[in-house]
Amino acid sequence: MRLEEITPAHVRRAVAIYLEIAWPGVEFPRPRVTVRDLEDAGTLEELFTRFERVQMQEGPLSPRYTLRLGNKRYPFMKFVVQEYLVDREYFFSVDTHDDLDVRADNPDFVAWQALRVHNRELKHQIEDAWAAAGLPTNRDLRRIAEHLAQFEREGKKRHRLLLVDDETDVCRGLGALLEARGYDVELAYDGKAVLERLEQNPLPDLILLDYSMPELDGEEVLARIRGNPRTATLPVLLATASSIDLAHMPRATGFLRKPYPREALFPIISKMLENRTPSAESN
């Protein structure tokens, strides 16, 4: 949905649906923000003063507004309004914001994994309810991207990409845009599927890897890719909306902050593949 088409009523409706699902009942604890807190905003600009706008000093970044609404079990989950891939088109999504580095040897690891599963279930319920209410979600992003792909076609390229993102609609929409540019594109929605795919030939020529995924996150997947002689030199472009210490990510070939415009992604991929012999020709 175009930003000029989004009204405070749309945002308040999205918040109301979020709270109904994430904070059922009225007993303690309570959400830190309620719909009533947003009622005085007469314009979208006034309403966005309650949100945090992500500011980055370097690199391309599309506008992203977040409002921490949490849920009954976890206070840090966020409502997100962001422009992504398509200029001036905005979409609502839920950021579970549960990327803490809790390792398997931590005594809270099992409980933490269960909480992450709970958060993702809430995320899907909320986004499904938004879509049913006619609010802009990543389903719309996929639809718009697939439509644009019909008009952005380029000549066939020899390289194969593996696109990894647990946001299935984003993954499919972006996959359509990359296929339109002539790449052979494969999709994966979790780290386990990535590692299974990399046991097969031909290997992809580049992996576009999302950092935030359930079970095996991007950091763990990247470590296993680099630890396997078969895949140790594969180019990996790591994409994330999370705040991570890049010093801990020296094994990524490139890094891209989400949400990004598609015009920023394509030159990066082209540059990373510029002097690479297609894997299908070397197997």
Structure at a glance:
This protein has 283 residues and is an alpha/beta fold.
In total, the number of domains comes to 2
Indicate the CATH class of the largest domain: Alpha Beta
Task: Summarize the main sheet.
Answer: 5 strands, parallel
Terminal Cα span: 45 Å
Low-pLDDT parts are: none
Structural class by secondary-structure content: alpha/beta
**Biggest sheet strand line-up:** 6-5-7-8-9
The CATH homologous superfamily of the largest domain is named: Response regulator
Spell out the helices and strands N to C: HHEEEEHHEHEHEHEEHH
DSSP strand (E) fraction? 15-25%
Gross morphology is globular
Question: Given the structure, what is the number of helices?
Answer: 9
Number of DSSP-assigned strands? 9
